[in-house]
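We now fix the convention by which a protein and its fold are recorded. Think of the row as the fold of the chain written in a discrete alphabet. Here is one such record, which you should read through line by line.
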Amino acid sequence: MLFFWNFRCLLLYIILVELNIDNVISIWPSSNSSDVYLLGIFYYTPNVSNSGESAIHARAMFKSAIMLSNQYNITVDGKLIGWREELTSGNVIDALSGTCLSVSQSNIIGIVGPALSRETLLISPLCEKLGLPVISYSATDPDLSDITTYPNFYRTVPSDNTAASALVKLFYRFNWTSCLIIYQNDAFGSGGARAINDVFNASGIRVVQMIVYDIAKTSIRGNLKTYLKNSLTRIVILWAESIYTSLILKDALDSNLVGPHFTWIISSMISFNYFDKKYDQNLIGMLLIESVVGSVVNAPYNIELLNAAYNIWQKYDNETYPGSTNVDYYALFAFDATWALIKSLEELCSSKINNSSSCLSFDQTSFCFDFHFNQYDLLLSILARTNFLGVSGSMRFSKNTTDRINGSYYSLKNVQSSANDLNFVFVLEYAGSENWRIPVTESIIKWPGNSLTPPADGAILRGVNLRVGIIPITPFTIVQNVTASNGQITIQYIGYMPDLTQLLTNQIGFNATLILIPLNQTYLQIIQLVNEGFCDIIVGDVTVTALRRQLVGFSNPIFDNSLRLIVRKTSDRSIDLLAFIKPFSRKLWMLALFTCIYAGILMCLVERADNEDLQNRPIISQLILSIWYCFGNIVGYGVEFNARTAAGRFLTAGLYILSLILVASYTANLASDLTIAKSQFVISGIDDIKNGKIQMNRIGIRVGTASEEYFKTEISGESKDYYPLRSRQQLYDSLLAGIIDVALSDSGIAEYATSSIYCNLTLVGNDFDRGAFGIVTRKQWIYAQDLDVGILSLKESGKLDNLRQKWFQAQHCSDSTITTTAIEIEATGGLFITFAITTLISLLLFLWAKRYNIKNYLPQFIRKNESSTTRPHSFTN
């Protein structure tokens, strides 16, 4: 059984080496003469250039570090350190077995790698059992930061927890508040996605959706196009290895999901040669966030050590050396991981220099699980104190975490086009806990669509084709036939809503196709058309109500609306000359007259003997003067004489009290009657309907409208005993025919109809149930925010007000809604006629009183005129 296991491991190792023997096998000197070895575990996929190059560079720098230690004569028990290497293809069991094979065949004292997080999660616990420290140069899973779970593990690459914090600050920089995450379903992908999600949620950034990419099936779980097209965000974070990043992007490009409407942030370098050249414009604007070394962000690093390593690489494998500026950053992390182990081993053995025993000892066996490095604990304590300036920056470990304490840097690269090729351009840098900053060599960011303006994180309508449903209601949408010069007839839409749609297309940039909605359905049926796919949005006179919001979505208001009452105009009322006496009933007038006469008689009785003004007069004169006294006091005017007796004064007080009440009551009732007299209509407002002044079956309500909802809720108590109307035309016809007396209608349409079309209809009362029209969309429509911003921009610029004035201010009928507070002459004509009669009677009384003088004066006047006509004229020369 043991033979079979070792044979299987050896066979696997040979196969992995043979995967790319022409490119991987080089002329590095053999290290078989060494007694102790460091094992390098590298992830190599020959079909993906980035992964292959990264593995080649990492292996070269791993060997360069060991060769450099040999040059520096760093020995362990007097022996130079050698190396063993293992190439993995991503299969964790293969990586585990390959490690087991190497340990069983050689004295392994430390491991550099593995490259993948999913391999590290198994190999690190295995090596803990074997007593071997593990330092990874590219495993970023946040779970690996737990020193308690992985006490023998360290890493030189920053954890994805640090990457998540850097992403938060990147989102802050560009005012993004949401994103969508696509991740591969392994430790690297799920760990990174979880870290980003946790940090984003704590920072107020919403992760709308997390999409899984199955690396076994090499496909998205679900439909990527459906996910992204229906997503509320347009920022996509892709957390996957290079090979899977390329596969995902290819599918996204084929579905038109990469630029210009989506901004992608990837975590792994890709090769543009993998994609068709026709997609170059779509790839422009994509961002790459990757961990980098200190030299990239102008942080301190060990340039002498780096140059020495490069010299060794060029000496032994010059064909794979890409130049100092093109070395993969993970290769430098691999060098520092190797150098940290070498320096720790050097310190371990230097502490044993005075001890005759060997500084290294092993429990060796052919079965790898029984292997154990005896100085494991001492070596780990030395590793925890690691502190040197490495080729990637400052290298320092701690006993509290597996992550490097400092030296965590990131770069943001932007896909741009130059000389017909695509390149990653370095645009921003991130050093430690600082904010993102512009590098020394500044480059502008080209966003998707070759824009220089950072995109919004939400879905935008620019360039999107929308089917816009419109409702043929004048003047919101007017359908007219236009005859061209060639005689061809085309349909043209004009009105408030078509003009609004055009303003929105100009403002936002979407493409609109107008679709006329038939009127043979209710508004509840009309709004359902967006859910049925008949159109994308509906731009019409649709009032936003609670019931409708349960079914569809609505935009910001596009038209302020309310309800109005429409009635027929009535003919002028007949003139009532006696309107001024109507405040009191006939009986009350008779009672007031009788009271005045009675008080006059009583006043004459108590005052005639003592009041000088009544003395020396005939009894009739005394009685009339007493009645006049009472009348003057009742109406509040007073007279020319005063009461002289106590009884007379007391009676006068009673007259004052009577005057106070009668005059005030008369004035109030007269004012009310005159106000009512000015109204020409059967009702004055909605309160009259609520108070039952009109029979329910004389009130017209359009079925399926917001006015019906209001009427049933506020007035009829869900009763449907009103007169149902099926269309606006039926509403107008029913009013004109006298079938109904009043109808409820939207204010905008009602004002237009009564001022421009139906001049014999008018509006009464104030508006009520104020609301607004909104554009109908599907619920949680992804473009809702962009549409709302466009509408608000039009409103703030005054264009909506201009549009309303254009279509609703035209007036071809007299404005019957304008009322005056002035009292017309007809209302008080009878009062003036009464006064004229009074003046005539006064004149007659005057003539009657002067009848004797007139009788004597008239003959004299006649004789005088006759004598003047017979007298001769004299002329003077």
